[in-house]
Design brief:
The complex is a heterodimer of chains A (266) and B (81).
Chain A: H1 4-18, H2 24-41, H3 54-61, H4 77-85, H5 89-111, H6 114-130, H7 141-160, H8 195-208, H9 211-222, H10 227-234, H11 238-260, H12 262-265
Chain B: H1 3-15, H2 20-32, H3 34-51, H4 60-80
Classes of the chains: A mainly alpha (266), B mainly alpha (81).
């Protein structure tokens, strides 16, 4: 399904109300024109939103560390949300087209399960559509959407492992164990593995990470969400986000060490 | 600055969200401490590797089911207007 079916509904209503019967081809052209107008007005690319990670990648490839830019959402998001709130289904569908891949990926990374990720994605979009009138615009739509998706994903995990997932789980001191395993990885350790093998390793280590750390790492480092927005999404303090992010990064580093240390492969 | 302090500042340092004076102290420590240098380097690579990893594809059947569900919701919504 593209944007056309939705646009058809909207345009049909307009045509009827104006009382101007049209040839089906003319109606189709008019509907297409409506979609194009929305896309032009909102500067929408028809291919979703590539390059969401560019900010984080640019940071990490730079010699000097720089703040993570929060560039996930383009400036026209507010216009799309306003149009969707006013009943423009095509505008809401454009928001879906833009974020569906990111929300599915987030669901997959948190739940580590395709069916759960699909449920997470569907629920996130259906709930956001249902509750769009309640969205006040205090945060970005994307932040709100991610919040719904994260809650859905964490609920899936709690159902699966009710005794193992607790947001209030006490933090341990990872700082003390950092220096037990220090080895050089070489310049590009990931290139020593085939892509499928690397994917398996990354899935395994991220899956092993406690969900409270995993979610923070995914939002901050993979999705490029800012510290403040991550705090907002998870309903925790900025200090807690920073603390969990540090622990997540250290634990992942430690887990990857066994695969990437030079002594392992040379 | 000692090694433990480096670890505590690691996230701020990698994110570039660190005071200049603290960053200078930290980098002076890194210049003389191989262990900390390796920890910073491998942690940076950890983030990099995940960022550069292959994106999870959205399967076409999954996407179709989402859009079918949404279309159904749009239809129901337009009937109630």
């Amino acid at each position: 399904m593209g944007t056309a079916p939705v646009a058809i509904q909207e345009s049909s209503k307009k045509s009827a109300s104006e009382g101007t019967p049209q040839h089906p081809i003319m109606r189709a052209i008019r509907r297409l024109s409506t979609v194009v107008k929305i896309m032009v007005r909102c500067q929408i690319s028809p291919v979703g939103f590539p390059g969401a990670l560019l900010g984080a990648k640019a940071l990490l490839s730079a010699t000097d560390p720089k703040p993570l830019p929060s560039t996930i959402v383009r400036e026209d998001e507010g216009q799309l949300v306003s149009a969707a709130k006013a009943g423009d289904a095509a505008a809401f569908e454009e928001l879906v087209n833009r974020y569906e891949r990111k929300i599915f990926r987030l669901g997959m990374n948190i739940t580590q399960n395709k069916e759960d990720a699909e449920d997470v994605m569907q629920e996130a979009f259906l709930k956001s559509f249902k509750n769009l009138d309640h969205f006040q615009g205090d945060s970005r739509f994307y932040t709100w959407l991610v919040r719904i998706a994260v809650n859905e994903a964490l609920m899936k995990l709690r159902k699966r492992r009710p005794n193992q997932v607790s947001i209030d789980e006490p933090l341990t001191n990872d700082e003390d164990s950092v220096f037990r395993e220090i080895e050089d990885w070489g310049p590009s350790p990931e290139q020593r593995f085939a892509q499928t093998e690397l994917n398996t390793i990354l899935n395994e280590v991220i899956g092993d990470l406690d969900p409270i750390f995993r979610v923070v790492f995914l939002l901050r480092d993979v999705e490029g969400v800012s510290t403040e927005e991550t705090a907002q999404i998870l309903g925790i303090s900025v200090a807690a986000v920073k603390s969990r992010l540090l622990r997540a990064r250290l634990r992942l580093r430690q887990k990857l060490n066994k695969y990437f240390r030079r002594s392992e492969t040379q | 600055m000692n090694c433990k302090k480096v670890i505590l500042e690691l996230t701020s340092y990698l994110d570039g969200a660190i005071d200049t004076s603290v960053r200078i102290d930290l980098e002076q420590h890194l210049a003389r401490c191989t262990d900390c240098r390796l920890v910073v380097d491998t942690t940076r690579k950890t983030i990099q590797i995940f960022c550069n990893s292959e994106p999870v594809p959205l399967p076409e059947d999954v996407r179709n089911r989402l859009h079918t569900a949404l279309l159904e919701r749009f239809r129901r919504n337009s009937k109630t207007i």
